[in-house]
Design goal:
With about 210 residues, the chain is mostly helical. It is about 65% helix and about 0% strand. It has 11 helices and no strands. The chain has helices at about 1-10, 10-30, 35-45, 50, 60-70, 80-95, 100-110, 110-125, 135-145, 155-170, 175-190. It is elongated. The protein starts with a helix and ends in a 16-residue tail after the last helix.
Length: about 210
């Protein structure tokens, strides 16, 4: 009883995290179409009324959880390590994909009913607001600073790294750091005219 009362008294970030964790677990188990405020509240060990004070429906809870648990790339401030920043961006993607949030997104997008219900909102309210595809923020950061021609940053180029990492994950073998470096050296850097393995300088030259 004491433990139950302690959980009921949670406030602020502790309570929010419990609710976010609960909705991510719940969507993997039941799918987006069967999410309910009751189910989320039971899993979070909090009254349903607590959820309604902040969100209007269970999908809003889910989108909020995915938004807050989606990582954001942080390119090197001095923009002097394009290759390293790209490898780190892909590592960020792998770590996220293996996290509860990543598993929840995979469950949504691989279930036709959940995907139909959620995919548009997911891309507009989570991915787009967090930088789009992984590596896009890094690539835009360096293009803006003249490290390679901005016109080379096409949607295809922005998708290359994420697509190759996704294939590895689907194949059941999370890519190693060596695999991620190979993706950067053999696919992304050649696509923007930067020598593989280089620390790109302004104008695309190597350092």
């Amino acid at each position: 009883m004491g433990d139950h009362n302690a959980r009921m008294r949670r406030r602020g970030e502790e309570l929010l995290k419990a609710i976010h964790d609960a909705v991510l677990e719940e969507v993997v188990e039941v799918g987006a179409g069967r999410l309910t405020m009751d189910g989320i509240a039971r899993r979070a060990a909090t009254p349903r009324t607590t959820l309604y004070r902040r969100w209007s429906d269970p999908l809003e809870v889910l989108l909020d959880a995915l938004y807050h648990q989606h990582p954001v790339e942080e390119p090197t401030a001095g923009a002097d390590d394009l290759r390293g920043d790209l490898v780190r961006a892909l590592r960020l993607m792998v770590d996220w994909a293996l996290s509860p949030a990543g598993r929840a997104v995979a469950a949504i997008l691989t279930d036709p009913k959940s995907a139909a219900l959620m995919s548009e909102a997911l891309f507009e309210r989570v991915f787009a607001n967090r930088g789009g595809t992984f590596t896009r923020t890094v690539l835009q950061h360096y293009a803006d600073r003249g490290h390679f021609p901005a016109e080379l940053l096409t949607p295809v180029v922005a998708d290359i790294g994420e697509a190759l990492v996704t294939k590895r994950l689907i194949d059941g073998a999370p890519p190693s750091d060596e695999d991620l470096a190979a993706i950067v050296d053999q696919a992304i850097l050649p696509a923007i005219g930067s020598p593989p393995g280089s620390r790109s300088g302004p104008g695309g030259g190597s350092r």
